[in-house]
Structures are given as C-alpha cells and as structure tokens.
Amino acid sequence: MSESKTKMPVAAVPRDGDNARGLATRSRLLDAAERLIARDGLKALTFDNVAAEAGVAKGTVLYHFESKDALSAAMLERFVTRFDIAWGDAIASDPEPKGRAARAYLTATFGDPAQGEPPLTGADFDPVNGALTAALAETPERLEPVRLQGQRHQQALVQDGIDPAAATLIRAAIDGLWFAESYGLMRYDPALKARVIATLKEWTRNPPKIEA
To answer: Which one is the CATH code of 20-205: 1.10.1270.20, 3.40.1380.10, 1.10.357.10, 3.40.50.720?
Structure first.
C-alpha cells in the first residue's frame, strides 16, 4: 500500500509561544468549541460560532487556529490527552496490580455506575469526541493520534497480569459500548449497562477462561 501524501493537519501551537495568556485563550477557545458541538452538533463548529461562544472576536480564533482542520486536530489531541490522564489517574488509585490497566480503562470510560460516579473524562467527552472522531473518519490520517493511543492502551492491557485474550475481550466490549452510544447507534437501558460494566470489572479480577 502506498503511503498517503496527504499531510496530517497539525494542531495549531499558540503563536504567543509559552505565554500564559495565549495558552489560556487557546484553552478557552477549545472549551467553547466543545460546548458548541455538545449543544448544537458538529455543524455548529464554525469560526463565527466559536468566537461568539467564547466572547472574543473572530480574529482571535483565526490567530490561534489558522483553519478548521487545525481547530479539529487540536480538539482531538486534547481528547486523547484527557483520556490518558483519566486512565493514568485510575491506574494510580488502584492498589491491586492484576487487571489494573483494564479496570482503569473501564473507569476512565464509564465511571462507576454502581456508585453513581460519572466517567473521569467529564460529561461532554463522549458526545463531542464521538462526533469529532466520526467526522474525521473520512480523512484517516487525522486519526493517527487516536490510533497511537489505542496501541499504547493495548500494550498495557496485554501486560496486565491476566490472559491477553481476556484483556482484549474486555477492552473490545468497553470500546463497543462506547462507540455505539457515542455515535448514537444505541441507547442501552441504564440498569442493563450497569450490569455489563460490573461484569467487565469482575472479569478484570477473575477473567473468563478462553481456549488457546
């Protein structure tokens, strides 16, 4: 397969360099973009709307993000970082080594419904990240940060102290639930979903036997 000559859009780096004010403005613009998608859908992601939502001039948005591709790439990279931070925090707070990475993956994605705890990534993470990822599927090279993230997660899961096949099965179930709901393909009964999540969590400690 020949390598695509299409370059992946690079998330815009604030032209203020390390200036704290510039970084804060950039973060404010990304927050506004997330709110727009969560409330009004991906079609609302325009420079005019982001500027209005953030309470700044349109030129400020263009100063930090020279194109919509750059804005989308920056949002996606922030989602990748946000999930990895949540996953790392969940790993650090779990004293039981066996299956810890898989439990953290589950907790970062869904929280703990049995305890009424929301996902560690925040309320808008799923619908916004789902919509953005689906839109970027038409340009696969832009999803490279997500692919690399998935490889890191898989490497940790197969070295998690449980059967790699069981760990992969747990991860596939988590991803399937997330994609189905984030893309609006399914809305599972909350009680049923909580039971599934509890079962997956139990499997991280006592995984099902999978024939070699």
So the answer is: 1.10.357.10
**Cβ atoms within 10 A of the Cβ of 87, count?**
23
CB 50 within 8 A of CB 32: yes
- Sign for the CA dihedral angle at 117, 202, 99, 191 comes to negative
> CB of 18 within 8 A of CB of 32?
no
Distance (Å, whole) CA 48 – CA 55? 10
Instruction: List, as own/partner pairs, every contact residues 61-66 make where C-beta atoms lie below 8 angstroms and the sequence separation is at least 24, other chains included.
Output: 61/29, 63/15, 64/12, 64/14, 64/15, 64/22, 64/25, 64/26, 64/29, 65/12, 65/29, 66/12
Quick check: 11 pLDDT over 60?
no
In the block, residue with structure tokens 């927050």: 31
Distances in Å between the Cα of 28 and the Cα atoms of 58, 64, 89 are 13, 11, 24
Which pTM value belongs to this model? 0.81
How far is CA 158 from each of CA 87, 128, 186, rounded to the nearest angstrom?
Answer: 16, 29, 28
pLDDT digits (tens, 9 = 90+) for 151-200: 999 999 999 999 999 999 999 999 999 989 887 889 999 999 999 999 99
Separation between Cα atoms, residue 206 and residue 212, nearest integer Å: 17
